[in-house]
């Protein structure tokens, strides 16, 4: 009887050690995603600024005041500048290059983000496997990441210290759900970008990317508190 109890405790400890290792790796990948998302935000703002410059409307020469100013300073340089839409070739070239660079950067971001999302999903699968091996009740956690994932819509990450493998798996499912939705939104934003995107659209895209409506910051902070201190 004593041997059975000791063996059970050893099994529980081993399962917990495995799930903690998986959870720590998972949260490390979350940090990488956060850093990547910040880079994506800067690229999107750069795209907005460059396109905004190139889309600037020409001077309204029907204005009496503007017409008077142009005539008062009607040098050849000023007239050429006005006729060119108040843009010189150097500025235009720079912003076209910036627009192209930012767009390529955003496409690269989408590819790198997909790799991280895939890794997070694999870690969630690993967590589900550990939970299965730990003999958790079938009603609490099923034997696949899809079932663990479904808990994210119903349960919150406990605020107390986690002690069971299924608690770590549930926490991972909650975070994965938020990050996956955040990434999906970003993919949709990048996919919709083109040289005809309106200033209003781009402003909204930048705000939504920065706001991250699918990510609960409080939940993220609580999840980080669950990572064991070294």
Task: Please outline what is shown here.
The chain has 230 residues and is mostly helical.
User: Structural class, from helix and strand content?
Assistant: mainly alpha
Q: What is the average per-residue confidence, as pLDDT, rounded to a whole number?
A: 80
Order of helices and strands: HHHHHHHH
Terminus-to-terminus distance: 35 Å
Q: Which band does the percent of strand residues land in? A: under 5%
- Helix share of residues? over 70%
Q: Count the DSSP helices.
A: 8
Radius of gyration: 27 Å
**Low-confidence segments:** 1-8, 136-155
Shape: rod-shaped
Q: Report on the biggest sheet.
A: none
Instruction: Compute the number of strand runs.
Output: 0
Q: What features would you describe in this structure?
A:
This protein is mainly alpha-helical. It has helices at 2-54, 64-72, 76-83, 89-133, 145-150, 165-192, 199-211, 217-225. Helix 4 packs antiparallel against helix 6 (165-192).
Layout of helices and strands, plus pairs?
Blueprint: H1 2-54, H2 64-72, H3 76-83, H4 89-133, H5 145-150, H6 165-192, H7 199-211, H8 217-225
Descriptive key words:
230 residues, mainly alpha, 8 helices, 74% helix
């Amino acid at each position: 009887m004593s041997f059975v109890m000791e063996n059970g405790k050893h099994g529980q400890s081993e399962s917990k050690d495995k799930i903690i290792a998986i959870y720590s790796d998972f949260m490390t990948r979350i940090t990488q995603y956060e850093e990547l998302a910040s880079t994506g935000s800067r690229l999107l703002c750069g795209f907005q600024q460059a396109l905004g410059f190139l889309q600037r409307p020409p001077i309204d020469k029907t204005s009496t005041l503007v017409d008077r100013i142009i005539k008062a300073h009607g040098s050849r340089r000023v007239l050429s500048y006005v006729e060119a839409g108040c843009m010189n070739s150097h500025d235009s070239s720079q912003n076209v290059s910036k627009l192209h660079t930012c767009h390529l950067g955003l496409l690269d971001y989408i590819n790198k983000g997909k790799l991280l999302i895939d890794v997070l999903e694999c870690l969630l699968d690993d967590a589900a496997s550990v939970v299965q091996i730990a003999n958790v009740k079938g009603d609490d956690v099923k034997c696949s990441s899809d079932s663990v994932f479904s808990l994210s819509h119903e349960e919150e990450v406990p605020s107390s210290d986690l002690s069971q493998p299924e608690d770590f798996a549930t926490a991972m499912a909650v975070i994965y759900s938020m990050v996956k939705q955040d990434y999906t939104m970003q993919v949709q934003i990048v996919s919709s970008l083109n040289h005809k995107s309106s200033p209003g659209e781009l402003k909204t895209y930048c705000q939504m990317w920065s706001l991250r409506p699918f990510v609960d910051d409080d939940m993220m902070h609580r999840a980080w508190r669950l990572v064991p201190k070294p």
